[in-house]
Task: structure prediction
Amino acid sequence: MRFILSLLLVLMTAAALPAAEMRGMWIYKTDDIAASAAAGDFLFDFCAKRQITDLFWQVHFERLADGGRSLKNADQTRAFIQRAHAHSLRIHALFGDPSHALSTKHAIVFASVDGILAFNHEGPADAHFDGVHLDIEPHGLPQWKKADIPQKCELLTQFVEVHHKAVSRAHTADPALIYGVDIVFWLDKTTAEGKPTYPVDYQGVTKDAAKHLLDCVDHVAIMSYRDAAEGKNGIISLVAKTIAYADTTKAKVFVGAKMADIGPKMEGFYGKTETQMMASLKAVDDTYRSHPGYAGLAFFMYEAFKIMPP
Result:
């Protein structure tokens, strides 16, 4: 009974949250955290102090003889999710690979989604994943760098297709399962004439990949990685078109901020203090808080955030 009440509290909290009070965070060393009560306690306290509500929690699968996918460390993961729900956190199963954009690899994505659905079906209600969060980045494919615009559009078409089919599969089995995806900020880039730079023709409709995804998923997390919120190349301007379109759909947009020491310095807040980063990111919340399509900030990543100077 206590577990059921805890789950109801999580769901009620989620429903009551104004958009700008949602905050996400990517986490990758998940097995270590799930295996340690102390590490879990530290994470829960960390999230509470920063109003983080949603964790994009990396999961791993093992391949079954029939080609299906089964979640590794299932019992340990269930125990962690129960604890996380008691701390009013939503947990999204994070997985994906650039190759999964390709039609030849879509079956892996579908089997992985089925694996999460099976995991939820087999466990108690308070130990279910609240959602799936797919990180499939077609621009990470080897062939992307040499591809011309039509070839890139074809890769993005396959990328859109896998998500349309996977979200339909997930929501048919469990309408309450949240389906989220990572996207780069330039998917909705336009030409001087205002047309999509990377047009995707899917089911007879031509628009950019970001719009196709916002038409079907529950949320996107934009990898809008910059070291400043304002200005021509700041985070606010990079996400403007995506949030404007999300305002016309049921989907929500998490705006990503990076503090990991990965990539060029101008792509994130590495080297700055948490106070400096949050002072800059306040402008993002202030700009988009009133937008129905804005979910809130999302932080990449816990492993870097927790060692950031205060």
